[in-house]
Amino acid sequence: xxxxxxxxxxxxxxxxxxxxxxxxxxxxxxxxxxxxxxxxxxxxxxxxxxxxxxxxxxxxxxxxxxxxxxxxxxxxxxxxxxxxxxxxxxxxxxxxxxxxxxxxxxxxxxxxxxxxxxxxxxxxxxxxxxxxxxxxxxxxxxxxxxxxxxxxxxxxxxxxxxxxxxxxxxxxxxxxxxxxxxxxxxxxxxxxxxxxxxxxxxxxxxxxxxxxxxxxxxxxxxxxxxxxxxx
Length: 231
Description:
Low-confidence stretches: none
Order of helices and strands: EEHEEHEHHEEEEEEEEH
Number of helices: 5
Strand order of the largest sheet: 5-13-6-7-10-9-12
Helix content: 25-40%
Largest sheet: 7 strands, mixed
Protein backbone atom coordinates (compact mmCIF):
# COMPACT_ATOMS: atom_id res chain seq x y z
CA UNK A 1 0.00 0.00 0.00
CA UNK A 2 1.31 3.45 -0.96
CA UNK A 3 1.61 5.65 2.14
CA UNK A 4 3.19 8.72 0.53
CA UNK A 5 1.50 11.37 -1.58
CA UNK A 6 1.84 14.88 -2.96
CA UNK A 7 -0.68 17.66 -2.37
CA UNK A 8 -1.97 20.47 -4.57
CA UNK A 9 -4.31 23.28 -3.59
CA UNK A 10 -7.43 23.58 -5.75
CA UNK A 11 -8.97 27.07 -5.43
CA UNK A 12 -9.70 27.95 -1.81
CA UNK A 13 -11.91 25.01 -0.99
CA UNK A 14 -10.28 21.75 -2.13
CA UNK A 15 -7.09 19.72 -1.92
CA UNK A 16 -5.83 17.23 -4.51
CA UNK A 17 -3.99 14.21 -3.09
CA UNK A 18 -1.84 12.58 -5.78
CA UNK A 19 -0.37 9.08 -5.55
CA UNK A 20 1.06 8.70 -9.08
CA UNK A 21 1.46 10.56 -12.36
CA UNK A 22 0.09 7.77 -14.55
CA UNK A 23 -2.47 4.99 -14.13
CA UNK A 24 -1.20 2.50 -11.57
CA UNK A 25 -2.94 -0.33 -9.70
CA UNK A 26 -1.24 0.40 -6.38
CA UNK A 27 -2.11 4.08 -6.67
CA UNK A 28 -5.73 3.23 -7.40
CA UNK A 29 -5.87 1.05 -4.30
CA UNK A 30 -4.29 3.82 -2.25
CA UNK A 31 -6.96 6.25 -3.45
CA UNK A 32 -9.72 3.83 -2.44
CA UNK A 33 -8.13 3.22 0.98
CA UNK A 34 -7.69 6.94 1.72
CA UNK A 35 -11.21 7.70 0.54
CA UNK A 36 -12.55 5.04 2.90
CA UNK A 37 -10.41 6.34 5.78
CA UNK A 38 -11.48 9.96 5.31
CA UNK A 39 -15.17 9.13 5.05
CA UNK A 40 -14.95 6.91 8.14
CA UNK A 41 -13.55 9.80 10.20
CA UNK A 42 -13.59 13.05 8.22
CA UNK A 43 -11.07 15.72 9.29
CA UNK A 44 -12.62 18.94 10.55
CA UNK A 45 -14.25 20.89 7.73
CA UNK A 46 -14.26 18.15 5.06
CA UNK A 47 -17.38 18.21 2.89
CA UNK A 48 -16.82 15.63 0.16
CA UNK A 49 -14.25 13.34 -1.45
CA UNK A 50 -14.07 12.50 -5.16
CA UNK A 51 -11.86 9.50 -6.03
CA UNK A 52 -10.18 9.28 -9.45
CA UNK A 53 -7.69 6.84 -10.98
CA UNK A 54 -4.57 7.97 -9.10
CA UNK A 55 -5.71 10.92 -6.98
CA UNK A 56 -8.38 12.03 -4.55
CA UNK A 57 -10.06 15.43 -4.48
CA UNK A 58 -11.02 16.51 -0.98
CA UNK A 59 -13.46 19.43 -0.75
CA UNK A 60 -13.70 21.43 2.47
CA UNK A 61 -15.28 24.48 4.05
CA UNK A 62 -12.58 27.23 3.95
CA UNK A 63 -14.17 28.85 7.00
CA UNK A 64 -13.39 25.75 9.06
CA UNK A 65 -10.01 24.59 7.76
CA UNK A 66 -7.39 25.31 5.09
CA UNK A 67 -5.09 23.45 2.72
CA UNK A 68 -2.19 23.13 5.18
CA UNK A 69 -4.28 21.90 8.10
CA UNK A 70 -6.11 19.41 5.92
CA UNK A 71 -2.86 18.13 4.38
CA UNK A 72 -1.49 17.56 7.88
CA UNK A 73 -4.60 15.59 8.85
CA UNK A 74 -4.36 13.47 5.70
CA UNK A 75 -0.65 12.80 6.27
CA UNK A 76 -1.56 11.37 9.67
CA UNK A 77 -4.01 8.99 8.01
CA UNK A 78 -1.37 7.97 5.46
CA UNK A 79 1.15 7.23 8.24
CA UNK A 80 -1.40 4.93 9.85
CA UNK A 81 -3.26 3.51 6.86
CA UNK A 82 -6.46 1.56 7.10
CA UNK A 83 -6.36 -2.00 5.73
CA UNK A 84 -6.79 -2.01 1.96
CA UNK A 85 -10.49 -2.00 1.09
CA UNK A 86 -11.94 -5.28 -0.04
CA UNK A 87 -12.85 -5.78 -3.66
CA UNK A 88 -16.40 -4.83 -2.79
CA UNK A 89 -19.50 -6.44 -4.20
CA UNK A 90 -19.40 -8.55 -7.35
CA UNK A 91 -21.78 -6.97 -9.86
CA UNK A 92 -22.93 -9.13 -12.79
CA UNK A 93 -23.45 -7.30 -16.09
CA UNK A 94 -25.04 -9.02 -19.06
CA UNK A 95 -23.68 -8.40 -22.56
CA UNK A 96 -24.69 -9.55 -26.04
CA UNK A 97 -21.99 -9.66 -28.70
CA UNK A 98 -24.13 -9.87 -31.87
CA UNK A 99 -22.52 -8.08 -34.82
CA UNK A 100 -24.94 -5.14 -34.94
CA UNK A 101 -24.54 -4.56 -31.19
CA UNK A 102 -20.75 -4.67 -31.30
CA UNK A 103 -19.83 -2.89 -34.55
CA UNK A 104 -16.12 -2.63 -33.67
CA UNK A 105 -15.64 -6.28 -32.72
CA UNK A 106 -14.15 -7.31 -36.05
CA UNK A 107 -11.75 -4.36 -36.04
CA UNK A 108 -10.59 -5.26 -32.53
CA UNK A 109 -10.13 -8.89 -33.57
CA UNK A 110 -8.09 -7.87 -36.62
CA UNK A 111 -5.94 -5.48 -34.57
CA UNK A 112 -5.23 -8.21 -32.03
CA UNK A 113 -4.74 -10.96 -34.64
CA UNK A 114 -7.48 -12.98 -32.99
CA UNK A 115 -10.89 -14.36 -33.92
CA UNK A 116 -13.99 -12.58 -32.62
CA UNK A 117 -14.74 -15.55 -30.38
CA UNK A 118 -11.23 -15.36 -28.92
CA UNK A 119 -11.71 -11.66 -28.21
CA UNK A 120 -15.00 -12.42 -26.46
CA UNK A 121 -13.40 -15.16 -24.37
CA UNK A 122 -10.55 -12.85 -23.37
CA UNK A 123 -12.98 -10.07 -22.53
CA UNK A 124 -15.17 -12.29 -20.35
CA UNK A 125 -12.07 -13.54 -18.51
CA UNK A 126 -10.97 -10.00 -17.57
CA UNK A 127 -10.54 -9.00 -13.93
CA UNK A 128 -12.70 -5.86 -13.78
CA UNK A 129 -12.86 -3.39 -10.90
CA UNK A 130 -14.59 -0.01 -10.67
CA UNK A 131 -11.85 2.62 -10.50
CA UNK A 132 -13.79 5.89 -10.73
CA UNK A 133 -16.82 7.69 -12.09
CA UNK A 134 -16.49 10.47 -14.63
CA UNK A 135 -17.42 12.15 -17.92
CA UNK A 136 -21.17 11.45 -17.67
CA UNK A 137 -23.66 10.23 -15.03
CA UNK A 138 -23.02 6.58 -14.20
CA UNK A 139 -19.90 6.30 -16.38
CA UNK A 140 -17.97 3.81 -14.27
CA UNK A 141 -14.43 3.37 -15.52
CA UNK A 142 -13.36 -0.25 -15.08
CA UNK A 143 -9.78 -1.48 -15.06
CA UNK A 144 -8.87 -5.04 -15.95
CA UNK A 145 -9.13 -5.48 -19.73
CA UNK A 146 -6.91 -8.41 -20.73
CA UNK A 147 -3.60 -7.28 -22.32
CA UNK A 148 -4.26 -9.39 -25.43
CA UNK A 149 -7.27 -7.28 -26.41
CA UNK A 150 -6.14 -3.82 -25.36
CA UNK A 151 -6.58 -1.44 -28.29
CA UNK A 152 -6.15 2.35 -28.36
CA UNK A 153 -8.91 4.88 -28.74
CA UNK A 154 -10.12 5.33 -32.29
CA UNK A 155 -8.82 8.47 -34.06
CA UNK A 156 -12.35 9.73 -34.72
CA UNK A 157 -15.23 9.44 -32.22
CA UNK A 158 -18.56 7.98 -33.34
CA UNK A 159 -21.70 10.00 -32.66
CA UNK A 160 -24.95 8.71 -31.14
CA UNK A 161 -23.55 5.54 -29.58
CA UNK A 162 -26.52 3.77 -27.91
CA UNK A 163 -27.02 3.48 -24.17
CA UNK A 164 -25.68 0.19 -22.81
CA UNK A 165 -22.82 -0.09 -25.27
CA UNK A 166 -19.87 -2.04 -23.86
CA UNK A 167 -16.71 -0.21 -24.93
CA UNK A 168 -12.98 -0.71 -24.39
CA UNK A 169 -9.85 1.41 -24.84
CA UNK A 170 -6.38 0.41 -23.70
CA UNK A 171 -6.78 -1.25 -20.30
CA UNK A 172 -10.20 0.22 -19.47
CA UNK A 173 -13.82 -0.67 -20.11
CA UNK A 174 -17.17 0.95 -19.43
CA UNK A 175 -20.87 0.53 -20.14
CA UNK A 176 -22.42 3.69 -21.57
CA UNK A 177 -25.40 5.13 -19.73
CA UNK A 178 -26.45 7.79 -22.25
CA UNK A 179 -26.63 8.09 -26.02
CA UNK A 180 -23.54 10.12 -26.82
CA UNK A 181 -20.26 10.05 -28.81
CA UNK A 182 -17.31 7.81 -27.97
CA UNK A 183 -13.91 7.05 -29.45
CA UNK A 184 -13.71 3.73 -27.63
CA UNK A 185 -14.26 0.42 -29.45
CA UNK A 186 -17.82 -0.90 -29.19
CA UNK A 187 -17.76 -4.68 -28.76
CA UNK A 188 -21.25 -5.42 -27.43
CA UNK A 189 -24.31 -4.08 -25.67
CA UNK A 190 -25.75 -4.65 -22.23
CA UNK A 191 -29.36 -4.46 -21.01
CA UNK A 192 -28.18 -4.20 -17.40
CA UNK A 193 -29.45 -1.04 -15.75
CA UNK A 194 -26.50 1.04 -14.48
CA UNK A 195 -28.56 4.11 -13.53
CA UNK A 196 -30.80 2.68 -10.82
CA UNK A 197 -33.18 5.61 -10.38
CA UNK A 198 -32.78 5.29 -6.60
CA UNK A 199 -32.02 8.43 -4.59
CA UNK A 200 -29.78 6.73 -2.03
CA UNK A 201 -27.93 4.60 -4.58
CA UNK A 202 -28.21 6.15 -8.05
CA UNK A 203 -25.60 3.89 -9.70
CA UNK A 204 -25.30 0.11 -9.78
CA UNK A 205 -21.61 0.15 -8.83
CA UNK A 206 -19.56 1.46 -5.93
CA UNK A 207 -15.88 2.36 -6.26
CA UNK A 208 -13.93 -0.86 -5.70
CA UNK A 209 -16.71 -3.20 -6.79
CA UNK A 210 -15.80 -6.10 -9.05
CA UNK A 211 -17.73 -6.48 -12.32
CA UNK A 212 -18.38 -9.84 -13.92
CA UNK A 213 -19.57 -9.75 -17.52
CA UNK A 214 -21.93 -12.55 -18.54
CA UNK A 215 -22.60 -13.43 -22.16
CA UNK A 216 -26.24 -13.60 -23.26
CA UNK A 217 -27.93 -14.36 -26.57
CA UNK A 218 -30.11 -11.96 -28.55
CA UNK A 219 -33.41 -13.27 -27.20
CA UNK A 220 -32.24 -12.82 -23.61
CA UNK A 221 -30.94 -9.34 -24.46
CA UNK A 222 -34.26 -8.24 -25.97
CA UNK A 223 -36.24 -9.69 -23.06
CA UNK A 224 -34.01 -8.03 -20.47
CA UNK A 225 -34.13 -4.71 -22.30
CA UNK A 226 -37.92 -4.79 -22.46
CA UNK A 227 -38.08 -5.42 -18.72
CA UNK A 228 -35.85 -2.38 -18.09
CA UNK A 229 -38.06 -0.19 -20.30
CA UNK A 230 -41.20 -1.39 -18.51
CA UNK A 231 -39.70 -0.90 -15.03
